[in-house]
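Quick one - inputs below.
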Amino acid sequence: MSAAEPPPPVFVLVEPQMGENIGAAARAMWNFGLDRMRLVAPRDGWPNSRAAATASGAGRVLDGAGVFASTAAALADLTHVFATTARPREMTKPVLTPEQAMREARALAAAGERVGVLFGPERAGLVNDDVALADAIISVPVNPDFASLNLGQCVLLTAYEWRREAVPAAPETLEMPRTRRASQVEVERLWAHWDARLSEAGFFFPDHKAEVMRLNLRNLLARMAATTADVQTLHGVLRQLVRQAGHGGFAAEPGGGRADEA
Amino acid sequence: MSAAEPPPPVFVLVEPQMGENIGAAARAMWNFGLDRMRLVAPRDGWPNSRAAATASGAGRVLDGAGVFASTAAALADLTHVFATTARPREMTKPVLTPEQAMREARALAAAGERVGVLFGPERAGLVNDDVALADAIISVPVNPDFASLNLGQCVLLTAYEWRREAVPAAPETLEMPRTRRASQVEVERLWAHWDARLSEAGFFFPDHKAEVMRLNLRNLLARMAATTADVQTLHGVLRQLVRQAGHGGFAAEPGGGRADEA
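Output:
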């Protein structure tokens, strides 16, 4: 993260029940670089060995987690709070998607606000008294016929959106290990090689279709975005097929024709 | 969903191990309205009672799941495939975020393409031979210090992005007049043809490089986004070169080998 990255929001788990779910939430957070967790009255006390076992690799999130007796105490120093809910709460509050909420959270954090997100217990979700403490509600736009996100999934999607909003319009990247895109002249030479051999082989037939056949093949070559290694491979493919022709049979004659070292 | 909603992508789970994870994937999908699942060689057979128990409420996804013996068979009728990977694969393919990939998937589906997303087994992820079948890679932008998304989480985020992208931005389109993208099975047959003839010609030499040489060629084929007409052309190219070999010379022997009428 850059120096300009604002501090991530605090994720507050209210009365979580299973240690495994606390650990899973820690992993989900740390996957996206969030490490500020608070716990309100965890059912099985704290620390929790099952939470630690599940969190493996994301233990630092648990190590830094603060434990509070009430939701109000956990939120005391925060200036802006979102509450995640699965169902409408009949309250007059903004209801945001995770995307909208984390975009807003990022702007608030960048302006020096201290932002938190509330997550309710596994089964029942947040009680209305806790939702009432929040400035806005986050509701994931799930299938109306099947809304069954669990705690870990809700934490995951919210953390993902925080991170996603950090990288505005990431460019598509083309993974190209140890090689580079072939230059136009390399592709032209490759085409000339294939054109010559295919012409000799009588491929471009009948004559009145030869032009469009050539055009289609050149388009294919252009579209494959060949690397220099690919170009060598395709020279080798052709040489080996034609070498056979010179010998009138299928005796393998290795050497020379192949070049793919990538 | 509106009437204009394009069909959602097929999610293909390759060699999933635990039934619970298949069930969790079904729930994650159905939360966002996706119900088209395929399974490649599930470890514990099919149907799987643990998958059914975990999926509760999303059983319709499992009920409709097709089971296939190989990844190639599961992809046979699809025209555009994304592969999810956690680590770089040293292949020359576009690498997209889930956001970019699902935006593209939505545009492709709206244009009548049949889109799929590959998910690998729980521990190891997809093998390179499966990644090679894909047009592009999906990589979730996780914390570089802690990348530990599990299968269910990866399915969840991808399904979430499909749903979130319900209003597609102006898509990049590939102009394809009077033709359509070749299906996976057409491309597989094309590859089998080339593989057989190149093997006979002794191209894959030396032996210890044969595997990577084949992988590179398959990646080239996937990248060129061939149309059905292109596939026929490339069958014809090969037939014509090999026909020569049978006659031991360069006498043009037209007919049969060409098919490009586009």
